[in-house]
Specification:
about 160 residues, two-stranded antiparallel sheet, six-stranded mixed sheet, Glutaredoxin, single chain, alpha/beta
Length: about 160
Amino acid sequence: MFLLSLLATALLIGHTPPVVVLEGEKGGTVDGKPFSTETIKGKVYLVVYADPDKKDLNEDFAEAVKKQNFDRSKFGSIAIINMKATWIPNFVLNGILKKKQEKYPNTIYVKDYDKVFVREWGLKDDDYNVLLFDKNGKLLFYKSGKMTEEDTQKVIQLIKKHLE
């Protein structure tokens, strides 16, 4: 049983998770291009992997990070949408995501049609997952569910520390 729980998650703080590629029927960016987690390098990246039904769960966290006005040449954000975790039809979600991409051009919006990140990285399904990576693609922070004020401050401090 212990071995199964180790295999269930590929995320370890201080390590780089295995590369995941979303393309074709598996997903990709809003404009239809393939997405690879190899792009999570060169900047500090905040990655959210969310069920569309939970999009507002951590609105306070998102606003707190946004208020920091981090230098976008050193800080990036990626929103990966678990398209299979909701009853909302894909064509509706695609329209919403296209508008979000236009409104927030500094965030990379990605569609996961087949829960690839749930399987490959062990992210929690049907939830809101927050991940923070350093410039080398190593995981600094991971939490699924509701972010507390303490979690929010920890992430902001980690971003500040790793932007230096």
